[in-house]
Known about the structure:
Layout: H1 5-16, E1 20-25, H2 30-33, E2 38-40, H3 42-49, E3 56-60, H4 63-72, E4 78-80, H5 96-106, E5 113-118, H6 123-131, E6 135-137, H7 142-150, E7 155-159, H8 162-172, E8 179-181, H9 189-192, H10 196-200, E9 203-205, H11 218-227, E10 232-235, H12 241-246, E11 249-250, H13 253-261, E12 268-272, H14 275-284, E13 290-293, H15 307-319, H16 329-345
Parallel strand pairs: 1-2, 1-3, 3-4, 5-6, 5-7, 7-9, 8-9, 10-11, 10-12, 12-13
Helix pairs in contact: 1-15, 3-4, 5-6, 6-16, 7-8
The structure holds 1,3-dihydroxyacetonephosphate and iron/sulfur cluster (SF4).
1,3-dihydroxyacetonephosphate binds next to loops.
Amino acid sequence: AQPSQKERIAALRAALGPNLTIMGHHYQHESVIRHTDLRGDSLELARRVADTDAASIVFCGVYFMAESAALLARPGQKVYLPEHSANCVMAQMAPAERVDAVLRALSADGRKVVPLAYVNTSLAVKAVVGRHGGAVCTSANARTMLEWTRKQGDAVLFLPDKNLARNTANLLGIPDDKRHMLDVRAANFGADVLTDEARRAELLIWPGCCAIHARFNLRQMETARAAHPGCRIVVHPECSPEVVNAADAAGSTTTIIRFTDEAPDGSTVIIGTEINLVQRLARQHAGRLTVLPLLESACSHMARVTEPKLLHTLEGVAAGTEAPVTVPMDLHEPAKAALQRMLDACA
Ligand code: 13P
Ligand code: SF4
């Protein structure tokens, strides 16, 4: 019989041996994640790149994650993404030229506005942020990084996720009248953004969001609590502040996993995040817990990385024909500075 895709991937992994590390984000489908050496949330995966000796890193996730891995890779290491069109819808809501223009306009009155970019941004945006003295954060360290960024200037521009911005501002007690949501869609987005409200604000918020997490709402939570009395609800901080405030806990994918691992035997955990992670936790805890999605919400871009594409990439890596993710020379230094500020502040 012909070997299955799973067997062919296993054979290629064995042939490439220590020259290969396969990394995968928790939102990857089971058929892909079962082949990974390392799995994690955005922060863990970014940190682990530097510890990896393998010459080839195959990254199963979306483009911005592979770009960050390529940025943190050692000289000679190459990062491959099985599907280059796997992007992040939220990252696409903040184009680099617009971020740069908005930052310049916000600083036109002499105030120092320091950007804090969620890791879900393109490398070009991270380079803009690095050049403006700013840093990167993930959902796991947004609080620490917002505190850090506030100390660097007069105001912070948080981008692109308005929900993570507002949820983190709530944790730090930044009052509503010190926050301002920018209208970056304005036709003349340069000068237009520097309104009186923007001048007064300590936290300027880019109006992006994640469509997958924006689907969760209070009605679903009420329905879940009525159907499963005593259940506990945990959600990702890309959900709206109303949903985060009504949940029992909120945090990065790692926090969600820990919350579920620590739930008492026999209890019900309802999770508001990407469906592949929820289904994996439901399988892992079957017989001990009832784990249910708040709503089945899937990231279609994460799903573009499939087992056949992973196989194809590994064949290309073994044959030396696969194109790695590249980091343009002029972006390398400023983007790395922004990422490194996060790694140093959260060491
Ligand atoms: P984490 O930082 O929790 O891994 O989340 C990444 C992401 O894309 C969430 O939608
Ligand atoms: Fe981007 Fe949302 Fe998909 Fe995460 S779940 S990669 S934030 S679109």
